[in-house]
Amino acid sequence: MPMPVATKKKDLIKSKRVVDDVIQMEPGRVRFLFDMKKSELQMVRQQAKQQPFSIDKYQNNTGILVKGTADDVRAACEQLKKLAEKVSARQHPIDKPGMPALFKEDKGQMYLRVVENEFNCRIDVTDPSEVETAMEVETEEDVPMMPPPTTLTVLCHVTRKDGRRIVVGKGDLTQMPVDAIVNGSDQFLDHSGDLAKAIIDAGGQSIADETTRILRAKEGALFPGEVVSTRSGALPCKRIIHAVGPTWNRSYRKSASEEKSHEEKMLHDTVCNSLSETEKYQCRSVALPAISSGDFGFPLDLSVNTVIDAVDKFFSSTSPGCLMEVNLVDNADRTCKCFQDSLVKYYGNENVIIPNQFSGSVGNTNSLRGRGRTKVTEDVSRDTSLEPLSNPTELKTSEGVVIKLVKGRIAKQKTDIIVNTTQTSLSLNTGGVSAAISKVAGPVLQKEVNAYKNAGWPVKEGVVIVTNGAKLKCKNVYHVLCCHWDESPNAERIFRDLMRKCFEKASKAAMLSIAFPAIGTGGLGFPRDFTAKVMYEEARKFSASSPDSSLKEIRFVIYEKDHQTHQVK
Predict the structure, then answer these.
(1) DSSP H helices in 415-488
(2) Is domain 394-568 annotated with CATH 3.40.220.10?
(3) Which CATH architecture has domain 153-252+259-352?
(4) d(CA 541, CA 359)
(5) Looking at the domain 17-136, which fold is it?
(6) In whole angstroms, what is the distance from residue 138 CA to residue 121 CA?
(7) 68 DSSP β-pair partners
(8) What tens digit of pLDDT does each residue of 69-104 get?
(9) CB 270 within 8 A of CB 225
(10) Each residue's pLDDT tens digit, 453-511
(11) What is the DSSP string of 24-40?
């Protein structure tokens, strides 16, 4: 029977009616989301099906206010709660007399803002004796505190023509700062194996509980080659891909007509399925072990060769999307050596980069010539490790870092970091670059720089001060305190140190892009050709020495009317 017109009208009015809901949470958590997760919040806003729709801070940052239709508000609240769960809050008692009161004052609040900018966190004084710090860590109530990520020792790497990279390294897979890791599992998702147990020990019981729920939902064991994914608990990655690798059948022998055995084909599929799973979750990087080489009995060399072949075939059969880097990782020297030898054999010695043969500071620099590479201190236009892109103002390093020459205004750049040039007076309204940035950013920038100085932190040539982006389209501004050009070695040292510090800070903060002006070419008197040469050299050095850095785009921004510097570059 057709629905009465009055009922239809009532339902239509109900679906269009604007409602609101408040998600209660700590002020520090609210500020962290609105300051550090702007893009994620904007994505939630864009998913609303009806207008008007809004997401705003609620009364003194005590929560998040969501307004819109009932369906949109309900969906947004679910996403915002999940986003908020990824922010942990910790309390730190303050027992030094007078400090709690200071933190309540304007002067103390400015000091806290300096620390927030330096360490990418948000701090609130919750009562007279405690300060609560909020920082991004994926956590759950039943998981242990995450230890600091270990550093991967890169043994070798290769960058394909499509820009995607395969890295071999020695390290703890559970502590890899990648988007996803692969766990070689059995058909019952048991966690008694070495790697599986290490993942649960480091990530928490919640991971095992989730795999139990998955297995229960499937009403039986998984098949070899099948993969499932879970959240990562306290691990630094975002997702864990549990891949069921095949068991090696020692009695099986492939026939003369077969190129690969049944087990090899199955392992090949397992790897490809794992990589496909990462792209479902928009992962840009993944780390995986020599699947099936342990308790599953696969010969190590056969496992390693199959994994590398599968990765290459997956990349060759798909267009570059989210996944841009695959890390082949193990703690055992024998497995790492096997991975390295196999990668060199597969891609050729001339294409695989071994860091201690590439860096001018480690190993024999003569090997650079033997590999057809030039030293990084030479003219970058003759460096064959830099791959020219279709755009003549862009270059890509062999580590996958894109170096762009942009003609425009530094204050208009949309990058994670914008670099500003200033002097020890810390007056942001002097100097062409600094004044332009300060004008767009607003007075907050000068206040934060002043707070840094008033806090007693060092203010001298060679220092980099970190502030918020304010009204700029960036997350942070790096204020570099540069010296005047006097043709001395000290001026060059300070200049190079500033470049290096900017790269290191951006990489440590997991930033993806950074924009530099032509540092020192204005009132500080640095020659344009010197500035161009040093900036390119330091960018190249950073790329070569930090192949696993998150920083993948470096912009050199030349003022649109500065034709001289553009020609020098």
Answers:
(1) 432-441, 444-454
(2) yes
(3) 3-Layer(aba) Sandwich (3.40)
(4) 8
(5) Ribosomal Protein S8; Chain: A, domain 1 (3.30.1370)
(6) 14
(7) 19
(8) 888 888 998 889 888 888 876 666 665 666 667 777
(9) yes
(10) 887 777 889 999 998 888 898 989 999 998 888 877 888 899 999 999 999 999 888 88
(11) E--HHHHHHHHHH-HHH
